[in-house]
Amino acid sequence: KGRVSQGAGEYPCWNFSEFSVIYTSLASELCIAGVYVRLLLDGLKDSSVEKLANPKDFFHALYHRFLCSADQGLRLECDSSLLDASQRQGEDWNVAALVEGDPDSERQLCVEAMAAVYRVHATAIGPFDGVPHATLLLDRTRSTALRHSLLKLLQSLLCPREVETDPKVTRVATANAAAFTSHGGVELLVDLLCVAHEGRDRTPIGGHQTNLIASTSYAEIPKEWHFYPFGPLGPEKAENRAGGEAAERYQKETGLAVDEMGRVGPLAKADIKQLFRTGRIDMVTHVWAAGMQVSAPFGTLRELRWMVGQGQGTLHPFKVAEMSLGMLEKLASIQPAVDRATKEVLSPLPRVHTKLANYRCLPHIAQLILTGEPVLVAGAAKLLSIILTHNSAALAKLYQTGLFFFALAYLGSNLTEVAALLKTAHLRQHFRGESDSTNVTGKTLADRSFLGAILPESLLYMLESYGA
Q: Where is 334: in which H helix or E strand?
């Protein structure tokens, strides 16, 4: 009315292009491309994720925000509460405030959302160029919660929905799997399997039977770790060994005795973790345990580096191992050892099968049976059957991993996968040499089987008849 009287025009024109409503209740929520990420995940269902208008752009926007949140250069050196309203305006402040507030929490939220979106919209998004980055970050991050979120993301990248029924989804997963395998992903997942041995808060099947050879037979936590307080070359000096001046001084200061090799130990992993927290051990301190040929810096050993991770994880160690097993099985099935058309065995075998069957990975998969967790035992036996059935050289040496004894010590009732593996392997072991194992003339079943000296021959016949 005032504008009309002043000659500004007969009708006012509303500036709708800059109209917006600020909801203070949502001010702390992470909003990307018009989607409130946490609220999307809180009510997570495939149907809600399917309704995203442009899942490809949303997925890449999440990844961009994930990268921005890690930029240390965006952190403000001053207290944000001291800034006036005019200083809080603009995109630069918005990004900096998010990074300054809680970047780790935001990064975890972005990764969780990326996993949820990719699992449903793999075809629309296509192969992900950030697979090498996600793989490296899964290994190197200090945040346990972020590591678990990255594991979920990689699971979605390798095992999206309908990967077994839709050829387009299969092609996308295959591209992601190739990048993952090329950047050390197989070995990384095998090391994640070993995390299951830390799940001591859950009683394995048959844990009360302490008179059997099982993981629960050991009442005391083993002490097997040593560290070099004066460095790996410290023992070359007499003063750094037991009885030396430096060693005596170190013992008075810390209460830790140095042996003749310039090492402190043996210590349990809990002791190592406590020493790391107090600063006695850092990422460059050399450590050693039985079985290691030479000492190595603390930070280069995944087992120890992950142990001292920051914060609490969102997954139980058994769940981490279960997810890793599923991903390894999917990697092995994406490129099977036999040609899909002719059913002939491929030569050479696919990379994933070769990597899993070497001595770097095979013992860790076999030792997973020692956890006594039914899901892990069945998964490990199934994976071993997949990668060894057509790999005669590796299968012939399976007995060296101790798998047969681990399997016989298992007290669970889900024996289908274990029996199938034993049937595949027990007659093909070269435990008496290759020439003797291949010569079956005049030999009984007990003579030919690796289990012949352990089980009655009648059970071996049962295994041959009903093992699979």
A: helix 317-334
CA distances, 152 to each of 160, 195, 330, 435 (Å): 11, 16, 14, 47
First CA to last CA distance, the chain? 88
Q: Could you say which of 143, 160, 183 is where a domain stops?
A: 183
pLDDT tens sequence across 401-428: 999 999 999 998 888 999 999 999 988 8
Q: Are 111 and 149 in contact (CB under 8 A)?
A: yes
Give the Cα separation of 440 and 147 in Å (integer).
51
Collapsing DSSP to helix, strand or coil, 327 comes out as: helix
Look at strands 31-32 and 35-36 and give their pairing.
antiparallel
Token digits for 156? Answer: 């979605």
Closest of 193, 201, 107 to residue 147, by C-alpha: 107
Domain span at residue 92 reads 30-183
Contact 442, 401 (CB under 8 A): no
Q: In what order do the strands lie in the sheet with 286-289?
A: 264-267, 225-227, 286-289, 296-297
Q: What is the pTM of this model?
A: 0.83
Residue 409 lies in a domain: yes
Between 32-36, 117-121, 415-419, the lowest mean confidence (pLDDT) is in 32-36
Give the type of residue at 279.
Answer: G
Assess whether 156 and 283 both reside in one domain: no
Q: What dihedral angle (degrees, nearest 10) is formed by the CA atoms of 243, 246, 250, 252?
A: 60
Look up tokens 């410290």; give the residue. 234
The reply to whether 192 falls in a domain is no
Residue among 224, 227, 226, 207 nearest 216 (CA): 207
Q: What is the pLDDT of residues 42-60, one digit of tens each?
A: 765 666 788 888 899 999 9
Number of domains in the chain: 3
Residues 226 and 147 in one domain: no
Q: Is residue 314 part of a domain?
A: no
